[in-house]
Amino acid sequence: MTEGTTNDAGGSTIGVAMVGHAFMGAVHSQAWRTVHRFFDVPLAPRMVALAGRDERRTKEAADRYGWASVETDWRALLERDDVDLIDICTPGDTHAEIGIAALEAGKHVLCEKPLANTVDEAERMAEAAEKARARGVHSMVAFNYRRVPALSLARRLVAEGRIGEVRHVRAMYLQDWLSDAEAPMTWRLRKDKAGSGALGDIGAHIVDATQFVTGEPLTGVSGLTHTFVPRRPGSDGTHEDVTVDDCAVFTGRFASGAVAVFEATRYALGRKNAMRFEINGSRGSLAFDFEAMNDLWFYDGDEPGATAGFRRIVVTEPDHPYVEAWWPPGHGLGYEHTFTHEIADLLTAIGTNTAPEPSFADGLRVQRVLAAVEDSAAEGARWMQVDSAT
Amino acid sequence: MTEGTTNDAGGSTIGVAMVGHAFMGAVHSQAWRTVHRFFDVPLAPRMVALAGRDERRTKEAADRYGWASVETDWRALLERDDVDLIDICTPGDTHAEIGIAALEAGKHVLCEKPLANTVDEAERMAEAAEKARARGVHSMVAFNYRRVPALSLARRLVAEGRIGEVRHVRAMYLQDWLSDAEAPMTWRLRKDKAGSGALGDIGAHIVDATQFVTGEPLTGVSGLTHTFVPRRPGSDGTHEDVTVDDCAVFTGRFASGAVAVFEATRYALGRKNAMRFEINGSRGSLAFDFEAMNDLWFYDGDEPGATAGFRRIVVTEPDHPYVEAWWPPGHGLGYEHTFTHEIADLLTAIGTNTAPEPSFADGLRVQRVLAAVEDSAAEGARWMQVDSAT
Amino acid sequence: MTEGTTNDAGGSTIGVAMVGHAFMGAVHSQAWRTVHRFFDVPLAPRMVALAGRDERRTKEAADRYGWASVETDWRALLERDDVDLIDICTPGDTHAEIGIAALEAGKHVLCEKPLANTVDEAERMAEAAEKARARGVHSMVAFNYRRVPALSLARRLVAEGRIGEVRHVRAMYLQDWLSDAEAPMTWRLRKDKAGSGALGDIGAHIVDATQFVTGEPLTGVSGLTHTFVPRRPGSDGTHEDVTVDDCAVFTGRFASGAVAVFEATRYALGRKNAMRFEINGSRGSLAFDFEAMNDLWFYDGDEPGATAGFRRIVVTEPDHPYVEAWWPPGHGLGYEHTFTHEIADLLTAIGTNTAPEPSFADGLRVQRVLAAVEDSAAEGARWMQVDSAT
Amino acid sequence: MTEGTTNDAGGSTIGVAMVGHAFMGAVHSQAWRTVHRFFDVPLAPRMVALAGRDERRTKEAADRYGWASVETDWRALLERDDVDLIDICTPGDTHAEIGIAALEAGKHVLCEKPLANTVDEAERMAEAAEKARARGVHSMVAFNYRRVPALSLARRLVAEGRIGEVRHVRAMYLQDWLSDAEAPMTWRLRKDKAGSGALGDIGAHIVDATQFVTGEPLTGVSGLTHTFVPRRPGSDGTHEDVTVDDCAVFTGRFASGAVAVFEATRYALGRKNAMRFEINGSRGSLAFDFEAMNDLWFYDGDEPGATAGFRRIVVTEPDHPYVEAWWPPGHGLGYEHTFTHEIADLLTAIGTNTAPEPSFADGLRVQRVLAAVEDSAAEGARWMQVDSAT
Question: Which spans are transmembrane here (chains A, B, C, D) (predicted)?
Answer without folding.
Answer: none
